[in-house]
Amino acid sequence: MQVNILEFWPRILQAINETLIMVGVSLVVAALIGIPLGIALVVTRQGGLLQNNAFFKGLSVVINFFRSIPFIILLVAILPLTRFLVGTSIGTAAAVVPLVLFSGPYIARLVESSLLEVKPGVVEAAEAMGASPWQIILRVYVPEALSSIVLNLTIATIGLVGASAMAGFVGGGGLGDLAIAYGYQRFETDIMIVTVLLLVLIVQIVQTLGNVLSKKMRRQ
């Protein structure tokens, strides 16, 4: 039976809300994990402020391990962990767990890349003035790289939007779940088109906001 788009809008709005919740919560938690990891990768590497080759190599291996797992496989592989942490393996809350594990290591590498763009001369000047490693991290590295970090977090957010859509394969909720349940399984082409356009719109809004924030934070 063909679905009436106008009558179906409440369900579409609910799906949008679920997608925004999944992406928002996942981004915050993943950033809280990924940003410190990215900083650790920079300061413990060869020649870093807190050089520790064993720690750097071990952390790098762990991050690369999680980054190498395709999201759809990770989604299914950690279902027992997801069920243990949130009490269920389906729904919006359940989708957050794999989304965090997927994006946290990715954000770590993006932050690492941003921090490595900081000019060595700026760091050396801070060291010459007697700043401690933590002072250099908080007052030199992060402020100098903030514009780039915001831009890279924008990229991570867009990646999360795409991954949240894939979570629909296991009943993760959101626009992806809607597209699969109606657009794919029931051959409701109108629903599929609407969900795709909405995902594109969300991505465009996120990218625009990220560009604006990054520009405002860019140091002259």
Automatic annotation (TrEMBL):
Annotated membrane topology is:
Multi-pass membrane protein
Please name the Pfam families in this protein's record. Answer: BPD_transp_1
Keyword GTP-binding applies: no
**Major location (coarse):** membrane
CDD domains tied to this protein: TM_PBP2
Domain of life, per the record?
Answer: Bacteria
Where do transmembrane segments lie in this chain?
Answer: 20-43, 55-78, 84-108, 149-171, 191-213
This protein's UniProt keywords:
Cell membrane, Membrane, Transmembrane, Transmembrane helix, Transport
PROSITE patterns in alphabetical order = ABC_TM1
Every copy of the ABC transmembrane type-1 domain together lies at 16-210
State where the protein is found.
Answer: Cell membrane
Give the record's family classification.
Belongs to the binding-protein-dependent transport system permease family.
Q: What is this protein called?
A: Methionine ABC transporter permease
Q: Which organism is it from?
A: Salimicrobium humidisoli
